[in-house]
Structures are given as C-alpha cells and as structure tokens.
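hey m, so remember when u said the tokens were messed up on ur end? i reran from scratch. heres the input so u can diff it against urs
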Amino acid sequence: MEPTFLEALRRKVEAGEPLSDAELEALSDAARDTPGPTLRLAVAHALVNAGAEREALRLLEALRRDFPRDVQVRLGLARALLGLERTGDAEAALYEALVLNPGDPEALKVLAVLALRRGELARARAYVADILQKDPFDSEARLLQAELEGVDMPPPPPSAPPPQVQALRPEFTAALLAALHRAGVVCRRQGRDLLVKLASGEVGRVDVGSLYAAYRDGTQELSAYVAGLVERLRGLSGLTLEAGAVERRVRPVLRPGGFEAQAVGALHRPGPAGLEVFYVLEDPELVHYVPEAALGQLGLSAEAVDARAWSNLEVLPAPVRPVVLDEGQVVLAESFSGLWAVAGGDGYDAARLLTEEQRRRLVLHAGEGPLRIHLGRREFALVCRESDAAACGSLARLGPAPDGIEGLFRLGDGGLERV
C-alpha cells in the first residue's frame, strides 16, 4: 500500500470520519503486516467511528495484552468503553493511562468531562487546571474551563415538594423489626446484622446497614419501604433456587476466622492468612449465604460452588481509585496519593484481591512488589506499597469497622499473608 494512501486513512480516522468497507479492509490488511500497535490501534478507532464498539473492544483488549505499557492503547480502550456506556471501566483505563504517563492531558480531559457530567465540579476543575498548568494554550482544556466557569446550579422549580425527612438508622431498624414481628417472621438482631428464619426453615443473615443505605438513597416513605422489605424477607428461600441460578449468582467473600459461629450452616472453607471463604448469592441489599445443606438437593459439590464463585468474580474486577485518609474517613483523592481503594462497593473487594485480573489492575496503579492491605471496610479494600512507610503507617492507624476484618495483610508473590 502506498504510504501516502495509508497516511490519508489514518488522518481520516483521527478526524472521526467513517471509512468505507474497502478502506477499512485496506487498513486492516496493512495493520496485519506492520509490527507495533499504531495501525492496529487505528483500526480499532475506525471501528468505533463506525459504531462497532464491541468489535473494537476485542481488538483493544488484545492490544493491551500485547503492549501493556502503551498509553494510546489505554486511551483507545477508554473510548470504546465509553461508547458502550461502561463508564467505570473507562475511568479505570484512564487511570491506567495516568500511571503509565502521569499528567497525560488526553486522559485528564476525558476524566474532567466525566466529572462534569456527574456534577463533580471541583474534581473537573482540578483536572483542567492540571492540564493548563502544563500547556496554557490547550484549546480543548480552555473550552472545558469556560464551560465550568459558566456552570450554575438551577434553582428548584417553584412546585417542587419539600425534601423528605428520612428516618435515622435506629428508627429504621426499630420499624423493620416491628413490621417483621407483626408479619409473623421469626427474626433477631445479631450485632449489625439481622437473622431471619426463611420460608425453607433455614436462617438467613441480612445486612441492616445495606438496607438502610438503600432506604436513604431512595424516595419512599419509611413505612412503605419497610413493608416492601418484609414481603421480600417473608418469601426468601435458598432451597427453591435452581442449580443454574446458584452458579450464576454465587460470589466468594472473605470473613475473619471463626465467622462460622455467626453464619451457622453456611458453606465455607479455610482461606488465606487465617481467613475463611464463604459464598453468597449476588444481591444489592441482602447478604444471603449459600447453605451447605442445600448442595445435595441442588446437585452441586462444594468444590463446584467454589470454582464457579471465583470464576464469576474474576470477570468482575473493581476500579482502583486513589484515596486519602481525612480524620479517619476514606475520601477520593484529587491526584495520586500512594494509597488506593479497590472500590467495587459490593462486599466482594477483599476476595477480589485474590483474582488475577484485579492483581493486574493493582500492578498498573501501584507497580510491582508487595502491597500492604487493609480489609477493615466491607465496601472497599485499601492498598498501598509495602515500601511506602508513611502510607503503611496511615493504614495501621485506621481501625476496622464492626463488620470489617481486623489487622493488616501483605499481598505478594506468596499470596495474602497476615502482617
């Protein structure tokens, strides 16, 4: 192929113009015969231009494996993921680009746009300021700056109803318990959880904190929300699940040693560093442990459940976000701080540290070498380099939440070990 024709195709792709079928085929043929990522990346962008993001994503994932240090591959990956509305994964790819090239303006501009869409104006302004500090004449950043300066919060409409006064957690818990007792549901408190006798006769464990958080995030009045919860809890039965449903929904979680006394009858096995591996069914609000007694009726072995649980989690890596500790609270950082959170927010983050894909993402952010781990919060896992004495000290001073795992851990070539 003539170099001038090939360069014309690349410029057309960079301008966002779709290629004809013949042009795309010619570019793909040239990419197969040319070493390096440049032309293959151009093919991926051409596919995105044509609205074929899924096909582009497969090519970009292969490029990431072949060229793990290439920043442009990460930026292309983020573009395809945004086209598929996978914003969280796109942000993770952008953070990976910043690890490879700190201060990369293209990555920062996309992160600024995403922050602006979410209404995180301070974060968006910080990204834009970082770009303009290095290049005051960056036209795209200056446009973003002008847009941010013109942002005003609209006043509430005159007919807007007054904000709902929501119950505090003790009132919420008392209302839930009273409603369950009135409905004839056998239940009792155990620490921060609620034990409920299910329709099958087994006992299920409910995370009251998750239920309360969902109530606070919603708009339902307390009595209506509690009534809906009671109906859900009355109908729960682990034994009515089919084996296929269990295999699709099962996830592993890490719990401290001796936790079987709190989750009586739940399937579990010894885990690393004196911890135990339990198995829960995916649910945004209820912690429903897989009962060991149900395996026979489901036709599943403990080994099969374990394998499927880890397989399910492997394909669900969490974003790795830079954070700082502010008076004992974990908050997102505006820039790299030496401390990261594996922040899926679904209770599986401690177990995610044992998956290959999550470890790969951690290496991209924190680099090679052993890591210090804090598992004191179920909603995320905190990570820093073991060589970073200041960050390790910060983790050591941060105690666990009542439902977290006490102590610090080391994650290295030997797996997870207690410090």
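this time it looks ok to me. The first helix runs from residue 3 to 14. if urs says something different then somethings off w ur setup not the seq
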